[in-house]
Design goal:
The protein is of the alpha/beta class and about 700 residues long. The longest helix has 19 residues, at about 90-105. The structure holds ligand MGD (2 copies), iron/sulfur cluster and molybdenum atom.
Length: about 700
């Protein structure tokens, strides 16, 4: 007998697919995974990565038991052979003793939790873990590694992370995929784009790398990295000069149009100069602006690729202004999407309980450390230094920038590192102890999305494998053992079950959430938010969501802020401006290291997740550096040659691929596990800890290097 369980893919991906898992009831084993055909965005299919998820869940490499290190730290002692199995009893007692000793000697802020996107499930991403660390008084982690530059910039214009729903793309006539690798990273948007194109829409891709999306597009603009702010401001100059803006919408719903007009009238933003900066022609800049402003409806799918460069915040601000001046927010199939994550009015504080910091030994909010500076933190921060690192939902020894400093930090003999994981990763190479984590097949979750507007229930399909525990169960157990539920500072929240936490998160008075209960979610699997606010769930076709058709921006002024006091308060241009990244062709650093490297994600891995699995490795060419023919021949490099890529931070040897994916001056590499790369280092040996100007995010796509034949 089979049963089919509704789950939701929790990986760090905007699509947040509805998933159906078939389980053989006799053996309790999952036998099949498929996309939920009833989910309006998933539409019955999964990406190639997760379609093979059974292989991941039942991989013989799964970490299934707590283990403690028996051999020296480092990649020479990789994987299970460096550890010996211990009981949960010993593991928890050791972790608690270590955390208590560190807190006693150095204060609890010497403990740093390090986590990111292993799961975006509401509970296992941020709930019991946060409660635990808040009550402990551990340093807070500013989760900046992915999206804060763009997110904060979007909020500075719109007030909230809302955008065009994916289902509306089918009604568009002009679609710009701006730093958005739709085919690779957001594949469920693609069928809607294809439907629009069958009805005559045009697709323009703006990306320095020729992605599969770019190859399928009507036009590919291979923009110079980090110059998007110049292009967006240049487009707005043309739109203003040629009177292509929506004067009525601008007057009613925007703030700072005069300042914007003044900004774009600067010499920098003439089509000729923008063409020089971006690597286009002036005619192409004009044409893009005219087509975008006159095609109706026109939509922009801008993704986080744009904001992984030093001035990515300004780029996102400028791009976000485009639909605000053309009035495209008024139209079904218009507007812009970066993220929809601001739409879910859950009671997040009921999950993370910031107030518990006051009950910690500190009696106040702990200091905050920026995850994009892990190398710097581990090697230089004092008062107190980080003495204990608790890693979960993340693989920092692969994903954090400036890998060599990160590793130097991890190898400090006085640092205690515990890693809660599903596999032996690059990071477990530096762990004193590893603890086994469940996959989404094995635990209950509440799922939202950053690419659509459906809340989902995710049920456990199978029992936890081995002795693995979910993040929620692990941190609950630690908290109870430390007595956090008892005594004068005790709080019963540490005893809550997953179901009780879901109920707490859903218990909000908000028209969008009216009638959305756990009971209904468990029956229906997914529910679209009541975005019309009239208390019922309608489909996107019946009631398309137009977040800003009539203004309604959640900024301080209530308008789209083309001029922002909060941006000014950061010491930045209150409108937007183009500043060339320090690590780019526009600066003197490029004399020494003339190539701009995009250290991109792999289409068939998810950040570094999946990169250890044989089935996924077959789908993805690994250890490549893609180069332009001119750059290659100038260095005597031929396709297939081993080459050394280097800068002041590090060096790595990869295989050259001369395939037309990048223009002269740009090279592209892919994220992977360090220990699966020759030499045991990954591309983050080259990336820097320079932070974005807005949001203090990582700058993986602003990175100068040079290459020589190895
Ligand atoms: N298959 C797959 N899917 C994923 C992921 C994955 O690793 N693999 N990762 C997930 C995560 S964590 C995220 S945040 C999302 C991210 O989704 P996207 O935002 O789409 O992410 P990126 O791949 O970082 O960047 C998109 C594109 O931006 C381009 N780009 C780089 N620099 C610039 C620039 O200066 N200007 C412009 N215009 N474009 C630039 C890159 O070449 C890339 O093709 O995807 C998620 N989905
Ligand atoms: N060079 C370069 N570096 C990058 C990027 C890039 O484009 N280029 N992208 C950046 C971006 S956008 C992001 S979001 C970050 C991603 O950084 P991370 O979020 O660290 O991403 P992953 O490498 O996928 O590692 C997630 C880990 O969490 C584990 N995990 C999954 N589910 C659970 C769970 O329920 N519990 C526990 N305890 N563990 C779990 C997985 O096994 C996996 O090893 O990387 C950043 N780094
Ligand atoms: S990774 Fe993204 S596209 Fe793939 S199944 Fe998960 S949510 Fe869907
Ligand atoms: Mo990300």
């Amino acid at each position: 007998m089979n049963k089919v369980v509704h789950a939701a893919c929790p990986h760090d991906c905007p699509d947040a697919c509805g998933v159906l898992i078939t389980v053989d009831e006799l053996s309790g084993k999952a036998t099949k995974i498929q996309g939920d055909p009833a989910h309006p965005v998933t539409r019955g299919f999964l990406c190639a990565k997760v379609a093979k998820y059974i292989e991941r869940v039942y991989s013989p490499d799964r970490l299934l038991y707590p283990m403690k290190r028996t051999k020296a730290k480092g990649p020479m002692n990789s994987g299970p052979s460096a550890f010996e199995r211990i009981s949960w009893e010993e593991a928890l007692a050791t972790v608690i003793a270590k955390l208590e000793a560190v807190a006693k000697e150095f204060g609890p802020e010497a403990i740093l939790p390090y986590s990111y996107g292993g799961t975006l499930g509401q509970l296992n991403n941020s709930s019991m873990d946060m409660r635990f660390f808040h009550r402990l008084g551990a340093s807070q982690l500013n989760r900046t590694i992915c999206a804060t530059a763009g997110g904060d910039a979007l909020i500075s214009v719109l007030g909230k992370k809302l955008g065009t729903e994916p289902e509306q793309f089918r009604h568009s006539k002009y679609i710009i995929a701006w730093g958005a690798n739709v085919h690779g990273n957001n594949v469920h948007l693609w069928p809607f784009i294809e439907e629009a194109r069958r009805n005559g829409a045009k697709l323009v891709v703006i990306d320095p790398y020729r992605t599969r999306t770019a190859r399928c597009a009507d036009r590919h603009i291979a923009i110079n990295p980090g110059t998007d702010a110049a292009l967006a401001l240049g487009m707005m100059r043309v739109i203003v000069d040629e009177n292509l803006f929506d004067a009525d919408y601008v007057a009613k719903h925007t703030l700072g149009f005069d300042e914007l007009k003044k900004k774009v009238s600067e010499e920098t933003y003439t089509p000729e100069n923008v063409a020089r900066l971006t690597g286009m022609t002036a005619e192409k800049v004009r044409r893009l602006a005219r087509e975008y402003a006159t095609a109706r409806p026109a939509v922009i799918r801008v993704n986080y690729g744009v904001q992984r460069s030093e001035n990515g915040g300004m780029a996102m601000r400028a791009i976000t202004m485009l639909p605000c001046i053309t009035g495209s927010w008024k139209e079904v199939g218009g507007g812009l999407q970066l993220s929809t994550s601001g739409s879910f009015p859950l009671d997040k504080n009921a999950l993370i309980r910031l107030d518990l910091m006051e009950k910690s030994p500190l009696g106040r909010a702990a200091r905050t450390l920026n995850m994009s500076e892990l190398g710097r933190i581990l090697t230089t921060v004092n008062n107190p230094p980080v003495k204990a690192l608790f890693v979960y939902n993340s693989n920092p020894a692969a994903v954090a920038p400036n890998h060599n400093d990160v590793v130097r930090g991890f190898l400090r003999p006085d640092l205690f590192t515990v890693v809660h994981e599903q596999f032996f990763t690059d990071t477990t190479d530096y762990a004193d102890m590893v603890l086994p984590a469940t996959t989404f097949f094995e635990h209950k979750e509440l799922q939202t999305s950053y690419g659509h507007y459906y809340v989902q229930n995710s049920d456990a399909a199978i029992a936890p494998l081995g002795e693995s525990k979910s993040n929620v169960d692990l941190f609950r157990e630690l908290a109870l053992r430390m007595g956090f539920d008892k005594g004068p500072n005790g709080d019963p929240c540490f005893r809550q079950s997953a179901e009780e936490m879901i109920d707490a998160a859903l218990a909000v008075e908000h028209p969008w959430m009216k009638g959305i209960t756990r009971d209904r979610l468990e029956k229906e699997g997914h529910i679209r938010l009541n975005l019309s606010g009239n208390g019922h769930s309608a489909t996107a076709e019946q009631e398309p969501f137009l977040p800003f058709a009539h203004g309604g921006f959640s900024t301080p002024s209530g308008k789209a802020e083309l001029y922002s006091e909060s941006v000014k308060a950061m010491g930045l241009d209150p409108v937007a401006t183009f500043v060339p990244p320090q690590e780019s062709r526009h600066t003197s650093k490029a004399k020494k290291y003339p190539l701009e490297m995009l250290s991109r994600k792999a289409d068939n891995f998810l950040n570094t997740t999946f990169s250890n699995l044989a089935g996924h490795q077959k789908m993805e060419e690994r250890n490549l550096v893609e180069m332009n023919a001119e750059d290659a021949s100038a260095r005597g490099i031929k396709d297939g040659d081993p080459v050394r890529i280097y800068n002041d931070r590090g060096a790595i040897t990869l295989t050259a691929r001369v395939d037309g994916a990048v223009r002269k001056g740009v090279v592209a590499t892919r994220l992977n596990w360090a220990r699966l790369t020759p030499g045991g280092k990954n591309i983050n040996v080259l990336t820097s800890e320079i932070l974005t100007e807005i949001g203090a995010g990582a700058t993986f796509y602003s990175c100068l290097v040079d290459i020589q034949k190895a």
